[in-house]
Amino acid sequence: MLRIYDTLTGQVEEIAPARGLRMYACAPPVHRRADLGDLRPALLSDLIRRVLERHRVRMVVCLGVDDVGCPAESARAYEEASARDAAALNLRSPELSPRAAEHAAEVVELVAALVERGHAYAADGGWVFFDSAGSPSYGELSGEKDPDGGDAFPHDGERSPHDGGDGFPHDGPERRRPADWVLWRPADGEAAWDSPWGRGVPGPHVACSAMSSRRLGDRVDIQTGGTELIFPHHEAMRAQSDAAAGHEVVRRWAHSAGLAPGGSAPGPDGVTPGDGPRELAEVAEAGLDPLAVRLAFLRHHYRGPLDLTWDVLRAADGTLRRLRARVAEWSESPSAPMAASYVRRAESALDDDLDTPAALRVLEELERDDAVPPGAKFESFLHLDHVLALDLPADIGKPRP
Predict the structure, then answer these.
(1) 172 pLDDT exceeds 80?
(2) Best exposed site among 111, 203, 204, 337 by fewest CB in 10 Å?
(3) Using the 8-state DSSP alphabet, how is residue 180 labeled?
(4) Are the C-beta atoms of 139 and 145 separated by less than 8 Å?
(5) Would you say 359 and 346 are in contact if contact means Cβ atoms under 8 Å apart?
(6) Residue spans per domain, the chain
(7) 3-256 adopts what CATH topology?
């Protein structure tokens, strides 16, 4: 069974065997065009799904779209662009893709429930804050145990997914503690919703809790995202959802490390940016297969930082073309059973915290092994491509150069 690093426990944990599992992830942003850094965490979700489905687990994946405050037309355009990018990378579509703007009632209901149960408080002017003091586990996900620990909890400025910046200044009434964060803030205009506290919009974290609860219930087996979401977004989500449910909602938290596309500033993972594309469209425009991006991601462990330079992508594109040519060549040989020992080693690597670099090394070793019949190599590569999803049979039937 799959074992994966749980950010909360700090250990590699086994995903408990089950006939069905529920997974939640935040969709790429819809206030701007998604970049390659947004796609790496999406690959993590896809790998988890594919590996678990290999174990005959039925997955229900919910991809929450936070479109609060975004003009509907531009939000849909960015959402559709992200869906095209996902398809180009062979990322499986989620079963559920709720939009926050369509869950106003659920958001207001959740905030009201938190206030009623003493986990949140209303302040003057139509503001509502989550009371961090009532959440003793707050800070465990990000590693900060003290809710009043100062700079580790900079909630004097909320990170907003709606304005494209690092956050907006808190211009409302005094909150009880610096660690308390906004659940509801007053606002006017078409984007504002009616609520018991007046017209306004939700804070940057509560809509995801509401969508997850509405679509998956109060038990979520896995939640994924990039490391930049651990704090404050996932930390706040965990506190909100657990307070509303009365128990731990998410069983396992999995996070993908950062990516430094060319021209970006070094991220929290210390990645030094190099000369590389920012968006997937640039890869195709350069004459490279978009799945070279997927292969480049797979060549690096998801928890390790990656500088996605053009050199890295060109090397991945060359490898991808070579492997496809080899698979097409092997397809013309008599069929033979899979190379069981190689397949077991590759699958074991995938089960071991999604060690895709090790799985790819096994494939390259199999490619070079002259003792294995070509037909066995063909069957083995096709079998493993169900998880790797590199379209390795793509050149079958095509004229050879």
Answers:
(1) no
(2) 337
(3) -
(4) yes
(5) yes
(6) 3-256, 331-389
(7) Rossmann fold (3.40.50)
